Amino acid sequence: MRRPFRIVAPLCALAVICAAGSRIAVRAQETAMPQSAASVVKTKVYASLDPVPRGKEFQVAVIVDIANGYHMNSHKPLDSYLIPTTLTPQLPAGFTLADTIYPPGKNLKFPFSPDKPLNVYTQSVTLRLRLTAGDAAALGDASIPITLRYQACNNSACLPPVKVPVTAAIKVAAADAKSKAVHPEIFAAGSSH
Amino acid sequence: MSNVKCAWVLCAAALLVSGAVTACRSSSAKASNSAADFQPEPDVTFKNLEGADVSLASLKGKVVLVNFWATWCDPCRSEIPALISLQDKYSSKGFTMLGASMDEDGVKAVDPFIHTTRFNVGGQQRLMDYPIVLGSDAITDKFGGLLGMPTSYLISRDGKIVKKYIGVVNEQQVIKDVESQL
Questions:
Q1: In angstroms, what separates the C-alpha of B61 from chain A's closest C-alpha?
Q2: CATH code for the structural domain at A34-187
Q3: Rounded to two decimals, what is the model's pTM?
């Protein structure tokens, strides 16, 4: 029994050393600055109806996945000098915007602000637009260009504010056309953050 | 060699390799923090808030800490008290701070900020009273590009970049670095 243990012990030590080494590597990656401010987020865009009948309100959701170790100011940061996250559509003819829904941020403290919390988005946040395609909206495929603006930081440094273009692809149908709700996992719930 | 000895030799080798890798990593982190060691300062000319030129060349003979910052950057704000202290302590010895704002709105954003925002420096409420200039992407490109703020460069009396700091400066470290150049 002793001999196998004497062999296994150093091998276990080797495994621990290797695991520690990989943890160091992961930590080093987490604290590295990205190549650009735009690379801190990944976006996905969804519409709530398919197709979108004229005159019926629908929503567009922009899911923003934020890189590990980073945060961005919420839409309502606690200090006026901070740059808020905004979502701005460039509406095609015939479309109207009823509202933009921003979920509340989280109040978190950071090493550079140990006493004063900041209201931020981390990990993933879903921003939504409430829209209507009116009678003047062209029937058929339509693209809605949207600009996501944010300013992100990690625990020790900030990236410049950046505008990231995204596009919602929808299909506009006649007012009496049949339409189905899609992506209920995104649109059925209230704000998701 | 027995299996036991073999296993321990393997373990010792792993320790050595791990130590070497860690040493390399820490020295590369240091190098990335001071990648620009002893490169000549870039030939750049800033504008101050009154619109006058301030070239780095005109500051040759002084030790300069060029600090790229912005009014909207909380980490930048957190280090300003330390930078005011540096200016207080070493300006009479041939050192100057040079705060280069990267605010998109330029003077419009920076001028009110430096005249109204006070910082706690040793119990006193102080304005950001060291020299402030306007930065730009063209200028930071000449420094090798700016990924985040704050980013600071320590420049020697003879115009060499001797250290680059990404993120909030460690006050004790920057004091040590400035003193080593004076």
A1: 30
A2: 2.60.40.1250
A3: 0.77
